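WARN  no MSA supplied for this record, continuing single-sequence
INFO  ligand: MU-OXO-diiron
INFO  echoing inputs
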Amino acid sequence: MADDKSFGEQFEELDDRPVARETSPSLAELWNRRIARRGFLAGMGKAALLASASPAILSLAACDEAPKADPGGIFGFEPVPHGVDGDHHVAAGHDAGILIRWGDPVLKDAPAFDVRNQSAAAQLAQFGYNNDYIGFVPLPFGSGASDRGLLCVHHEYTNDELMYPGYPADNPAAFYTREIVDISMAAHGGSIIEIMRGADGKWQVVRDSEYNRRLTPLATQMTLSGPAAGHPRLQTNEDPTGRRVMGTFNNCAGGITPWGTWLMSEENFNFYFLGENADPAEAANHERLGVPGSRSYPWGYFHQRFNLAAEPREPNRYGWVVEVDPLDPASTPVKRTALGRFKHEGCENTITKDGRLAVYMGDDQAFEYLYKFVTANKVQRNREENTNLLDEGTLYVARFAEDGTGTWMPLTFGENGLDESNGFTSQADVLIETRRAADILGATPLDRPEDVEPNDLTGKIYVALTNSKERTETDAVNPRPGNLWGQIVEMEPQGGDHASTAFTWTLLVKCGDPSDPAIGAAWNPETGENGWFACPDNVAVDAKGRLWVATDQGSGWAAASGTADGLYALATAGGKRGTARQIFRTPVGAELCGPCFTPDGTTLFVAVQHPAVDGAKNYKGFERASTFDDPATRWPDFDPAMPPRPSIVVITAKNGGPVGG
Ligand code: FEO
Ligand code: CA
Ligand code: CA
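INFO  complex generated
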């Protein structure tokens, strides 16, 4: 790791390093499945099943039966050209406004943001840093509303060098105090904000909403449930029960369940632990997950639980999926151990043919795996009956065969070597050491699995493999050595059933510049010189079933593409399949996260993360690392007294129609 990179840049790049070691369902079926899903929502909310299902039928009919000049049905806008500068850009015919930024009030008693006099108490009531996943829960729940709802937002990590005046890049250790660490902890986690669209079409945060909430690793008590809860390996001095844990951090992509809860992933949790591990029995487990990080946040100097010498089992309480009920501000979030422990990227989910929930999850590190969890029981219409649905089920890991088929292999104690012969004494052990269990099953190491998105209109699943520059040996699903650009995998479960353990797969695109044969990119030949992209990360499917891809090239953007990160619409069907077009471009140094549509597709929320940070030294005319006083851009305020601020951007079409036409 080069010394001239900021902590934030180095932190992200460590993802790149490995740790040692049939046909589409019929339209009738699709309708039935979609209606079933909406029916769950309706039954749990105030709308009647029929009222909710009918518009779904109509919109599907309109989508699938209308004659199409553009079979991909995707490009109702002119592309934003490639490039890089200090501002964001959105396609003509659209507006892009700031909804909320780091430091803005979330709780009704939040103080105004004073960046030079920040406190942990203030930050606990204000919007956190580095917004990542965005989920939208319509209000009233079950209504399918597109003009009022709750936004559930992850704050993945902090760029301390841009948050604090006087931060000494050459000697940061001397800078930290308990208060500074607590501010950074309070800027992690998540935010829930109620938002409304006014008569003028503009979205605003409802400042006095009772739903507004911050979740942080500093002050939000959570519980652990499922097969590993209470296990001795989860017990610490602070929590002898192994069932209580303070907060969550490094939450990346995520998901919203059909019953309206929010699934928060825990990704690079290893970079928050330091010190010498005091428990030899956990040594191999910690090593497999990179604990402690090669460079970690200094929290452990002020909070003993992040010091491995004092609390060697504390890391076992992170790396899970947390379920939060945004509709109950007093609810206690629950870490669902049945979904496994690894560097969880996302938790997008869908319904199996028999009505259970399937959750798709990437483990984002080089040569790690793709997972799926299927609940044992069916999703119930009364949301209260789903309270513990995620505690029972089967966790699977994917093996991709060279011939375009694949298998989901169960990570079940007592089966296929997941037993005492390999050091597992219970399902809790299998879940705590999910990666090692998956190694034993022969799962396929992938080029950093980021977000995974089911498309309910087709039954297909899209996996963003973002890049893997250290790959030397290739296979069909990871076909390029030194892969700086990534690829998108399209999977189809056998029989169109997400409960099936068999699937087929193909590569939708191989990313990178198609004009350079050495890169080996694969796009539809119609892809224009501004249409291709590199490093797919968060993905979304809109109301029309179109795939939208946000990119994160990290500090390697200049080598990967030479253009800033952005959001691209990507055709998945018809003659334009494999063609992309950019709708939004970030300011220099940012990655794009979030993409999240309202149910009617007329609003698109995106999260601009760490503006001014990544690869600032490759930004022509700037060519140095950004600091609080000297950032590559002061987006979005462009106030000489304000540093850059990660922010949520709202994109709408000027004609009031769906974003992207
Ligand atoms: Fe947090 Fe894998 O991106
Ligand atoms: Ca991500
Ligand atoms: Ca990322």
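The mean pLDDT is 91.
INFO  checksum written, moving to next record
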